[in-house]
Amino acid sequence: MCGIAGIINMADQPPPTLEQMVTMISPLRYRGPDQSGVYLDHRVALGHLRLSIIGIDGGIQPICNETGELWIVYNGEAYNYLELKRELLARGHRFSTQTDTEVLLHLYEEYGPACLDRINGQFAFAIWDSTKGELFLARDRVGVRPLYYTWSGGQLLFASEIKAILAVTGRRELDPEAIGQLFVFWSTLPGRTFFAGIEALPPGHYLQVKGQPSRPKAYWRIPALPPEEHFRLGLSEATERFAELLEDAVRLRLRADVPVGAYLSGGLDSSIIATLIARHCKSRLKTFSLGFADAAFDESLAQEEMVRHLGTDHRRVLVEDQQIRRLLPETVWHCEQATLRSSPVPMFLLSQLVHSEGYKVVLSGEGADEMLGGYHIFKEAKVRDYWGRRPGSARRPRLLERLYPYIFNNPSRGRSFLQEFFSAKPEQLQDPFFSHAVRWGGGIRNLTFLSAEYRSCLSGYDPREELGRWLPEGFAGRDLFCRAQVLEIELFLAGFLLSSQGDRVAMAHSVEMRHPFLDYRVIDFAFRLPAKWKMRGLQEKYLLRRSCRNLLPPRIADRPKHPYRAPVSALFTATASADYVDELLSGPSLKASGYFDAAKVARLYQRVLEAPSGTVGEFANMALMGVLSTEILHRQFLASASYKGVRRVSPDLVRYGAERRTEGRDWTSATSPTDGRDHGTADGA
Q1: In terms of DSSP bridges, do strands 148-152 and 199-200 run parallel, antiparallel, or are they unpaired?
Q2: Which of 5, 17, 7, 11 is nearest to 656 (CA)?
Q3: What is the pLDDT of residues 280-320, one digit of tens each?
Q4: What residue stretches are annotated with the Glutamine amidotransferase type-2 domain (predicted)?
């Protein structure tokens, strides 16, 4: 993976400078510690930081085509680049490197925006056409790789991370609507960020810029209703076909010129991926996992069983509550958005372990739950729908106790209260958002912790209406299970799992994550399967379990879903040597930032501190986490005039466009090279 950044002039004004581009890419050094490069002409500056994985020699970016008319900066991997390269060679294209970057550049030269349909990978890239004066930005189908942009002072600025944009623009302000979206949806909506005026290029979209601001265009959306012909496949045939697609997705994602490892949680998804990797590995597979000091979150026994089964070279990091508290600020710095969960912090520690072992690439099982029905929210929706058809039933709501025993066993909540909390009335069954109504309802109630000023900013704003405008055409006409899947993919997967819990914490330690379950062929096939093959009764991922029947130990293959979670309430009670929690949650601090009602937050914090462990309730813990992480974000990006600890990048290579030859510079002019050892990490505290 890499980091990219750029500036394009939208009007007649002085050219972007090398100084501006160095200022942008310097805070992102950890995304590409191996090499760096810049391209400049009279309208554009492009910057790149390289984490070399494919075509290690000769792959420094920006890269141009044969004529020097097209230039690319690229973050990601096109896993089918070898097949694409053969096709392009047959069409007369010539290559000077062994990288997938150059393949994408020529693919765009051949097909224009339609090239995106042919790429099997995860990517965010920018291509500058110096002849047309046009910039092309694109992001992969599900949003594995980040890309942000803003229109400012007659310029478009874009980058892999927001901090690069903020480094050269003056406006720093949190968006009240984004804070509201976080509390309701657990993430911002597609295209939105926590920072006013800065947008995210949505997954599956591209942006063409020529002379004036423009809007993103979709080239891919989540597949629509299943075509009839796929229903004629029998369950056995579908299982076999899915297994073939998944194995090929793994095979493609092993393409690298560096060693590839795997995350191993002990759950079904990562165990399948690790097993398929081991089939194709010529050497002993190295695996990495998390362990928790708190037994309620620990899966070490299942991990150890898989390690014995596969004979992997295994490494594990043990996570304690105090570590989560200590590292939360640094994690928020990398994520660039507040969070309702502490789970990104252990993943930050896991990628640190991977980096310390000399690995740059790991495969994970992310995506299986969304594509094949692994989450409790799918079961919850099914039970509530079942209950809503006979609302007077006393037995149907009892099924919820099987899903959430840790909630129903909470002595502070009686059974009658919780049944009312989850209740479903017949008229609610027609709500397109029925599957997520309980979750979002709790989030909406937590908006009362906002200050009066911020609540007034949200007066008349309903984030669900904005979501409805975003969702693909025909969403409301899909079945309940499919609607729930779409919401999880559009919101939680893209907005949190692949971002705060994925790319951002992995790249903080220069680690690239790859996700075979998110191969677009796997997604397309999964969405054409009948819902009953994904969830049979209340058994999640039924078809996936059938497909791995002969791959895994029985106890792993039959193991119920154990959602990845990390301690939240314990974070507030754990002690830390350099404490910041009490200060940020204090009345003076909350009043100074102005986002939250200081008195209400003080009462909530006191309740969390005094309550016995596990009795406060998930929504209360998440509300306090949202407050704390928002305050951290404010301190890091708004209250501070500059970023701490950022070391300046001295590009290995600066390339000048034809328009700057008059300055007496060559096309390629080396500046002071770095030795690749300076990661320039930021101090997020």
Answers
A1: antiparallel
A2: 17
A3: 888 899 999 999 998 889 999 999 999 999 999 999 999 99
A4: 2-212
